[in-house]
Amino acid sequence: xxxxxxxxxxxxxxxxxxxxxxxxxxxxxxxxxxxxxxxxxxxxxxxxxxxxxxxxxxxxxxxxxxxxxxxxxxxxxxxxxxxxxxxxxxxxxxxxxxxxxxxxxxxxxxxxxxxxxxxxxxxxxxxxxxxxxxxxxxxxxxxxxxxxxxxxxxxxxxxxxxxxxxxxxxxxxxxxxxxxxxxxxxxxxxxxxxxxxxxxxxxxxxxxxxxxxxxxxxxxxxxxxxxxxxxxxxxxxxxxxxxxxxxxxxxxxxxxxxxxxxxxxxxxxxxxxx
Length: 274
Prior knowledge:
Layout: H1 12-63, E1 80-82, E2 87-88, E3 92-94, H2 97-100, E4 121-124, E5 128-129, E6 141-142, E7 168-171, E8 186-191, E9 193-197, H3 210-215, E10 218-221, E11 227-230, E12 235-237, E13 254-258, H4 260-269
Parallel strand pairs: 7-12
Antiparallel strand pairs: 1-2, 3-4, 4-9, 5-6, 7-8, 9-13, 10-11
């Protein structure tokens, strides 16, 4: 008597079911891994932002000035017109990592880059302005943030302290009305120094999100022909990460700043003020 042959193969329906199950298992693993990778890059970039902030503060305590921003042509050095007077080639540009002595990854144009390989941006208050809060008006005080030996007892004292406040505002659109930096939306004012990462979508030229274009507005081309975006105004938006609305409209900027009061506190500790 012949024994019945056992068919050990799989039918097409069975194979399809197996493939569907494997696909579901892979998607359940890959999506969390993608989210984890994004969170790791955010943490890495935030850590670099804080390290740059510390380096800028240390540089200021030693030199009594902040460095000028780097440009696409300065190879990571600060780019200034006249170092003695503190006149910078630009006041909103890139982090001068060579000047600060920061050892980290750079791109082909020698710009310090974040975890998404996009350059960090750096803005510092320009050197002169007539401030209506000055005790004796009209007096034009040297803002002195980038002037050699400018941040000292001669320029920052009890009479002129209000006259050397920074120019940048930090805001969020808490009213969700699209009108940015309203009075009740300002987190900080008079900020002298901003350090910024434009996040994962920094290279997108199709983003239509209003917050994204508040932090940038001017494009520059490096020697590699890569286009970079730099700030163009005095208002910065923070904390409105809406990554679930699609890549073309996503806002994912990361921003840190140096408060004037933290700056003055460090100066007092270092014996520079008052």
